[in-house]
Amino acid sequence: MTHSQDQRPAPAPESLPAADHDASDALLERVREAARDNTPLRLVGGNSKGFYGRPVSGETLSLAAHTGIVHYDPVELVVTVRAGTRLTALQQTLAEAGQQLAFEPPHFAATATVGGMVACGIAGPRRPWAGSVRDFVLGTRLITHDAKRLRFGGEVMKNVAGYDLSRLMVGAQGTLGVIDEVSFKVLPRPAASATLRLEMTRDAAMARLAEWGREPLPITGAAHDGETLHIRLEGGAGSVATTRERLGGEPDDADFWRRLRELELAFFSRHHDSRPLWRLSLPHRAPAVPLDGDELIDWAGAQRWWRSDTPAETIRQHAAHVGGHATRIDLDQPHGIEMPFTPLSPVLAKYHRRLKAELDPHGIFNPERLYEGL
């Protein structure tokens, strides 16, 4: 199965730096009013990832006007940015200094914002080798349920005061507070890169990746589409050239990784395949999941996409059996679907409820975005 490019438009490049506009006072006032009136708020940045989660009923609180890079020190590899800043604007600024967000976040639309990127916590194909979104968050400034602006963490790795609470915001989808600012660790862009394609079966590809994983090779992308193993190499020019010669294969289109990251391959298009789309997050060396349908493997086996008509409960049971979980995604539902995530166990549900009660006792921030009743 060969996956070609879908027709959804790619994110438009930013031609201007991030606009500098501090809207925190207006945001504080809206949160203060919502807390006073017990009014639920639906937090929105660019709504590029609205499909990822459950629908939220509430008044819209837009962060799109809260923009700007507050502080950037290329020497110290740290940047602090307001939540409504376009992701493309931040990446352009970093690129001009030869740096990047190493976790390779997807956009899904030109409107994608930094706050939405953190709230959803989705990383791209480089995730197993570079780290997750959470790994690069140094600190945050939050607007709390009682309309206070509090800073947690800082701008250096050694400043751990409140650090874990900052990381807790990653993937919380705005259910615990309003992200005001975020400080990130950034890294230099690689000096050289190459993309290869090797025709082989799924099992052969997984065996080869397990073998290569035991060596210090400059691999930063590994995906299998059913017929072809796609490999990305990044690092020093000599290391990339030597590894490329060793692995063999044919040169591949480097744009494959952008299309995979942005879910623009034909595999992800409903026009190509109308069966439900599932994302399985599994241990790297988990065995093949016995599902009917078509599979696309990313993250060297840790992320497995499926197009399958298999019942949701069965898919989630198979994922849990090998130590993972399954997420249902519908790219055509801009406000989410009723049960995208694997239901919480009773123990985890108890801790989620306690955390929500502590950080959002009025239940005003994106209620039930992640799970029903939370």
Explain what the structure shows:
This protein is an alpha+beta fold. It is built from ten helices and 17 strands. Strands 3-4-8-6-7 form a five-stranded antiparallel beta sheet. The protein is globular, with a radius of gyration of 21 Å. This is Glycolate oxidase subunit GlcE. Its EC number is 1.1.99.14.
Could you list some keywords that capture this structure?
374 residues, five-stranded antiparallel beta sheet, 17 strands, globular, disordered N terminus, four-stranded antiparallel beta sheet, Alpha-Beta Plaits, alpha+beta, 3 domains, Uridine Diphospho-n-acetylenolpyruvylglucosamine Reductase, domain 3
CATH architectural category of the largest domain: 2-Layer Sandwich
Q: What does the radius of gyration come to?
A: 21 Å
Given the C-alpha coordinates, what overall shape results?
globular
| Distance separating the two termini | 40 Å
Q: Given the helix and strand composition, which structural class is it?
A: alpha+beta
Q: Tell me the CATH topology of the largest domain.
A: Uridine Diphospho-n-acetylenolpyruvylglucosamine Reductase, domain 3
Count every helix, treating DSSP H or I runs of 4 or more residues as helices: 10
GO molecular function, one term: glycolate dehydrogenase activity
Pfam families: FAD_binding_4 (PF01565)
Region (Disordered): 1-22
Organism: Chromohalobacter sarecensis
